[in-house]
């Protein structure tokens, strides 16, 4: 990464920083290693509150190289210029309240998050949620009814894809400990999320589901974890045909948007696109159609004062001013050949919907393109929907066009998150928030 310098020119939709404050699930990260790394997250979480700032003093103008087959991103460079305010993408519908039982071991922060409102779910009949497309899903995937009825009865998570794992992933997401894509598959990313949740809640950390974790998540008393959603006119508009690989052709486009309504809605509800289709086997994805989606809950609201990127566990943790972990996400970091930074840097600025400048003279050669090209913004651009610029030149935290690559692949040194996770983080950070890279 440090040998590369691709420029990321912010579009007019640059967000000024706030003043006040997969299927990667099949990754094979060792649970014991995950547990050991995650256990240390809170041991050094003293954290200093971020100093409130006015408008961001700088905005990123150079960005990581686009993701290749290994999911890599390139390098970034910044220059000082005013960042223009730009509202973020709309939040998903708000969920109905779900409270853990009185005997829950959940810590206060988890109790607060579980108590936030949730979107209205379909009516429950005879103990099972009645949702459109609730028949047998294709390829043996769990049905909506099976997911709603799933409960933990001891032992490890089932191997492969299961209703219980899908439900667990949604509950973790609601607690702001991201499992990455919600797809129902057991794997290293879900295990790392369990370990992060155990650490935050003061439970024994082993990355495995057990009665204490299930109870702390409110699994014994939760309401519906799926919701019925009606497709809108906006959902079916503004779509791109499948994007070409040639950067010269991409540069001619107005926006690098979603290729289908299913892809757009999968990202909105934090789901693997294939899993969304499996839950809705007869869907036509037309305006007015009702489909079944995961209900990941509202975004976190507690401001982040300090960030840790833990390289061994491939997780990013955000802490408030008192040192409490408030968000935790899976990430892709640099490889040994193109490593991520070491030590501590700071957040400089945030760009929503960044454009991407390809410069073959200072970076790699893409196809036959030997001239500078400016690629338009969009969630399927090389840095996804958000760029969080860091004080170490050419580095940043950013989104991705391929959420399934998170956790397993390697970047060119930057830190890559799913678009929905980095969008949430972008609304929680301020200029001056520290980012510590932990080996």
Automatic annotation (TrEMBL):
Residue ranges of the region described as Disordered: 20-108, 122-158
Domain L,D-TPase catalytic residues, every copy: 305-438
Domain of life: Bacteria
GO biological process, one term: cell wall organization
UniProt cross-references to Pfam families, sorted A to Z: PG_binding_1, YkuD
Pathway entry: Cell wall biogenesis; peptidoglycan biosynthesis
InterPro entries: LD-transpeptidase (IPR050979), LD_TPept_cat_dom (IPR005490), Peptidoglycan-bd-like (IPR002477), PGBD-like_sf (IPR036365), PGBDSf (IPR036366), Transpep_catalytic_dom (IPR038063)
Cellular component aspect of the GO annotation: extracellular region
Example GO molecular function: peptidoglycan L,D-transpeptidase activity
Catalytic residues identified in the record: 398 (proton donor/acceptor), 414 (nucleophile)
Keywords: Cell shape, Cell wall biogenesis/degradation, Lipoprotein, Peptidoglycan synthesis, Signal, Transferase
Compositional bias (Low complexity): 46-93
Position of the signal peptide: 1-24
Family indicated by similarity: Belongs to the YkuD family.
Name of the featured protein: Lipoprotein-anchoring transpeptidase ErfK/SrfK
Organism: Limimaricola pyoseonensis
Top-level taxonomy: Bacteria, Pseudomonadati, Pseudomonadota, Alphaproteobacteria, Rhodobacterales
